[in-house]
Amino acid sequence: MSSLVGLITRLYKLVYPPGVHLSTDPKPLKFGILGAAAIAPFALISPAKSHPEAVVYGVAARDRARADVYAKKHGIPKVYGSYEELLDDPEIDVVYNPLPNALHYEWTVKILLAGKHCLLEKPATDTLEESQKLFELAESKNLVLMEAFHYRFHPAIQRVKQILDSGELGPIRHITASLALPQGIVGAGDIRYVYSLGGGSMMDAGCYTLSCVRYLVGSAPTSVIATATAASLYKPDENAHLIDGAVTATLAFPNDVTATITSDEAMPHHFGFIPRLPQVYVTVKCEGGEVKLYNFVMPTIYHYITVTPRDGKSRTEKAYTFKDGKGEEWWATYRYQLEAFVDRLRGRTPQTWVDKEDTLANMEWIEKIYETSGLGARPKSQFTF
Ligand SMILES: NC(=O)C1=CN([C@@H]2O[C@H](COP(=O)(O)OP(=O)(O)OC[C@H]3O[C@@H](n4cnc5c(N)ncnc54)[C@H](OP(=O)(O)O)[C@@H]3O)[C@@H](O)[C@H]2O)C=CC1
Ligand SMILES: O=C1OC[C@@H](O)[C@H](O)[C@H]1O
């Protein structure tokens, strides 16, 4: 009963964050958003409402009318008629880039050339080389650039890492990570099915499962053992054969550790009409037992961590806040991420970070998985600077 009340309270506060403010900071960090993207209200607009040092100051869309409607709906004070116009505004300190994957490179270059910090949606770019160039540029301009792997900032995944690193369960043997959604959530016209926009399940949900197993093992893979892809349900254009609607990859890591990652954008309904439940979990089998985190991507909604030592009693933990009390039960992964991002921009030490090496390793192995699958790399941007 108490966990049901907890769930309802968390969800309520997630939607209506307490202490919604107009920033109390006399000089808050002003964020601008490129595109009236579906993810921005979750990833930035709502989290910023409870952060005293961050405000979402402006939004730009390709079509000004679309930006107007979006700004009105989300209480964003300033609207721009083009992305360039937003980047030219000296009032903006930081730009959130939630454009389709294939546009991440071009627009992050432009953001950095405009002298703004950038919170960049995952996956960082279509190719490893593009991510390398972005970080070189950010470093040369002394600007903060981070790939928005929000799940990393939540206490739940960090608790799993802590359990593994404590040695309680002995060395890791095999990890299984899954992010698979039922058909119908990602609609037919979605950017995720368009090859020229950097679509594909490995790019979308798969980049989380890869990131997660790399994080928990604590190193990069050494090889791709096998991959299997399934064609996408939807075929928006002539390049649909290059899109993985679902992908499973088995990876080797140092010390004989292996991992199997699965992602699916549209699991078919049972018997053609009964929707499947989302499969979002990571299970780590160790020499001395097993730990499972159910819902590592959106743990604020609900999660559990089950620890089953081989020779002991199984236990279940929850980690909505950090043990030292930092965070709030209702903070989404994105809110924890924003806390760290603002801390870094304000010269404080963030609780954790997704650094350049982390992003580059993820991009490198996304590419290798695509190579092994036979689908080939995602299209390189034609943009040069
Ligand atoms: N962190 C997370 O939890 C999530 C991250 N993502 C990531 O965020 C990004 C956006 O995803 P999502 O919000 O679902 O996507 P949307 O399609 O809702 O948003 C993408 C935006 O890109 C703009 N855009 C610019 N050029 C194009 C083009 N040629 N075709 C289509 N759109 C274009 C559109 O802006 P305009 O308004 O100017 O037309 C649109 O609003 C992706 O990189 C995705 O991987 C997505 C979901 C969850
Ligand atoms: O970033 C994301 O998070 C959840 C996924 O299911 C979604 O497709 C993806 O874009």
From TrEMBL:
The keyword Lipid biosynthesis is assigned to this record: no
Domain of life assignment: Eukaryota
InterPro entries, per database record: Gfo/Idh/MocA-like_OxRdtase_N, Gfo/Idh/MocA_domain, GFO_IDH_MocA-like_dom, NAD(P)-bd_dom_sf
Keyword set, alphabetical order: Oxidoreductase
The enzyme's E.C. designation: 1.1.1.179
The GFO/IDH/MocA-like oxidoreductase domain, residue ranges: 157-288
Listed SUPFAM superfamilies: Glyceraldehyde-3-phosphate dehydrogenase-like, C-terminal domain, NAD(P)-binding Rossmann-fold domains
Pfam family, one: GFO_IDH_MocA
Full protein name: D-xylose 1-dehydrogenase (NADP(+), D-xylono-1,5-lactone-forming)
